[in-house]
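Follow-up to my post from last week.
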Amino acid sequence: MTGEELDSIIEEKGQDAPALVGILQEIQKREYCLPFKTLGMVSEKLDVPMSRLYGLATFYKSFTLKPVGRHTVDVCMGTTCYVCGGQLLMDRLLRDLHIPEGGTTSDRKFTVQPVRCLGCCSIAPVIRVDSDVFGHVTQNQIPKILERYE
Amino acid sequence: MEAVNIVIDGKNIKARKGSTILEAALENGIDIPHLCYHQHLTSAGVCRMCGVKVKIGDRWLNKTGHAPNTMHVSACTTEVGEGMEIVSDDEELNRSRKLILEFLLAQHKHDCMVCESNGVCELQKYIYQFGIDPKNLRFPGPEYTETVDESSEVIIRDANKCICCGRCVRACHEVSVQKVLNFYGRGGVDDSLPKIGIIAGFDQPLGETDCASCGACIQVCPTGALTEKLSRFQGRSWEFKKVQTTCPYCGVGCQLELSIKDGKLVKASAVEDGPDNQGNICVKGRFGLDYVHHKDRLTTPLIKRNGKFEEATWDQALDLVSSKFRDIKEKYGSDALAGLSSAKCSNEENYLFQKLIRTCFGTNNVDHCARLCHASTVAGLARAFGSGAMTNSIRDFENADVVLITGSNTTEGHPVIGAHLKHLVTCNGLKLIVVDPREIELVKYADIWLRQKNGTDVAWINGMMNVIINEGLYDKEFVESRVEDFDKLENMVAKYTPQKVASITGIPAEKLVAAARLYAKAESGSIIFAMGITQHTTGTDNVLSLANLAMLTGNLGREGTGVNPLRGQSNVQGACDMGALPNVYPGYQKVDDARTREKFQKAWSAELPSQPGLTVVEIMNAAGKGDVKGLYIMGENPMLSDPNLNHVEQAIKNLDFLVVQDVFLTETAQMADVVLPGATSFEKDGTFTNTGRRVQRFRKAVPLAGDSKEDWDILCNLSRKMGHAIDCSSPAGVMEEIASLTPSYGGVHYDRLDGDGLQWPCPTRDHPGTPYLHKDKFARPNGKGLMTAIEYRPPAELPDKEYPMVLSTGRLLQHFHTGSLSRRSMALDRIVKEGYLELNPTDAARLQVADSGWLKVSSRRGDIQVKAKVTDRVAEGSVFLPFHFAEAAANRLTNDALDPVAKIPEFKVSAVKVEKA
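User reply:
Got it. Predicted complex:
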């Protein structure tokens, strides 16, 4: 990310402390992770110590330090989803995409990770791709769901 | 003190209002177990060890209001309230504490056998107290996989011993305000995220971060997770003899606790209730003291024969010294002799030195390096207020709303005050105005930064006063009742409109106006300054102008106000107070006042000269001309510290006889005829007076090196040989003599100095000392402050075609003065090995030089070679050079033009030429 790009993000989100998480989210969205170099610029421009940025980056699940795929597949492993077969969905995803849990496909299209409760137990088991939630998912629906994403 | 009645474990206690339950308990001798609490840090309440049960009336303090079982209140975060009944010690609470300890121990690498914290570890203390068996834990422990971080030159970080209490994080944020350490992984819910811990920077090795190596984190760490690197395996806590002393470096006078084993200084830490440092010290005080055992220490007197030093006995050396000095005195008169005293020696030694020069030599030619740092402060403030020292106390800045700092790179020159100011800005809402040509660290914390051109200080101060008077913001009542000559000032500053000032100083008019308003409107405004103000040919004018500004706004004589010069060396205040100056006796009593002279003649039973003597630079000039033939230097190194070194070198070579008394063979000592080995402040007793006028003890902690002697002892022996014996059996006895002759030290006696020391003026035995001066009246004879109308004068040397750039010199955090001590400290030398020239990127591009490229810097007086440091800390056309390094000696370049009043040279402005080497 260039300094100008970052400047425009900061201009949009604001300079004060509460805006910081929003700025990091925007960086995560554009870069698929929080790169060390970009955070170095954030630290300098906003006068926030690097140690605090690292603390934030490792606090929220939605931030990653290593690049993730263009689409993130969250597999709910909350109690209800787990009982309803969440692990089977996870196994199928990993098998189809040839990646380990938390891994990213070689074409950088998908990252698959387990999450705790997504808060929609009534439609368990649930997976979420980016911000789309899919309920009552069966193993066989998995390829169709993945097809919808570029 | 407002008190609150509470009951802890059945004991009635009057607690300090506003204190927490834990503080109230600790202050009253009840030790509630705690791990994350530390007296100088905010309470976090994360370790839960201090959980207590609290009842008010019949209601228990918790969510339900019923008698608690496990939901305890943390004592470190709960303020005391009237009528609280507190249970801090029962089976249930202790069961919880035991559980917490077991969890902590499960994650803690307990290699107590080789742990540096063995014996002082707080976790170890509680594990023992609660009888927990580390071999038989209820919870499985992890593998210890974290690598030990040894990247820092001074700190070892072992995350396997960290209990995540967060004290180091808070110390790094609140005490040193470096913000290098922080928590990470606090959101960790599964194995894909790192587990909670503490990182430096962006999870970097500590040595690669902005860590200032102050060791505040070591000071507060309850376990062995953070320890000193260089003292590893040098001794265990119970083997140490602990000695409290005063730091030998800068003028803050931090109280240190030394750990001594077998006569060797192993490590140092800060004294938690040191009056001015409050548990904080900088990298020099914590890690830079090992010079005391350096192999270069002088251990025997040396006499130069045929250009070579030969070892000698004390008798041989002192016989030679006394006979030579006596010969010169007989042949050329007393004024052919001179002495340079030392701001590194004690009050007692400075007193004895000036007494020896005045009685045995019979001359007032005695001075010391204060001439080169704050002579203009002493002259200026004495004229304006009647007393030439810091008006308020070091810790008093916390009572100020606005602090104006100019010409002081506080975070490097006086790091503990600098850190305190950063703390006040970030945690207390202090407003800061920084006026400095360089973008120093404090600029980041400033509300307003004015970047003036070097040497234009009178102009911007007059400009601020112009705004304040025009806008009616000045304190009319104060000016009318306590100050003289306001009308003269008013007429003069009328000319200095912000627009005119902008053309002289380069400060934009609107910024100057904003700064003037901020300072003038403050309830309590304080001014801090140091050598950026004083080391000019207009040094005295600069100081007088700041005094004008403070008087105009009524910012004097109260808490949180004042004009506060930060003195550079551990005892530069004391050396001045003791009369190691050519024009005054101890306590600034004038030598040309007949009655004063009579008093001292009687006390010292000697005939004393009536004319003021020569100052440092004048002594060197006189030596160059052959008027001064014999020079006695105690603990100074003019061959690095004085301006225009090439000239100094010629002057010293021209002397008939030079005696240097020091702890190392400094650049100056190498030129001496006789070298006398003195003692460091760790090897003798004495007192230092810090910049806040506080007289504090330093104490003998280790034996003398070889055949060296305490400096006071050498002085007494020499005086005996010179035929006018000065008797002294101990520094304490000398202080009695000082007290009897010096009104401001009249109540200073050794038996009173063991606690917080005493701040002068302290005229009588029962006087408590004076935290701030000029309360109801000024120290001038008529009790009024004097305003002085001062016009701006440009510096002595301005850049021109041949020498187009402006050089200023100054200090680095890690080194001190001429480096004779700090460069012989292993840690400090490893952190910063060599000097550099700060150069603006635009100038660097023009010169086609990259970072670390070699440069040749020359002035009309000399030239040096030095590496470049390309940075926009300096403005275009300006360069900065630290003066600690003999191989790139800044003072080969500096100008020895003097302030006409204070005779201080202009170190801060010299015209130079910079070329690629």
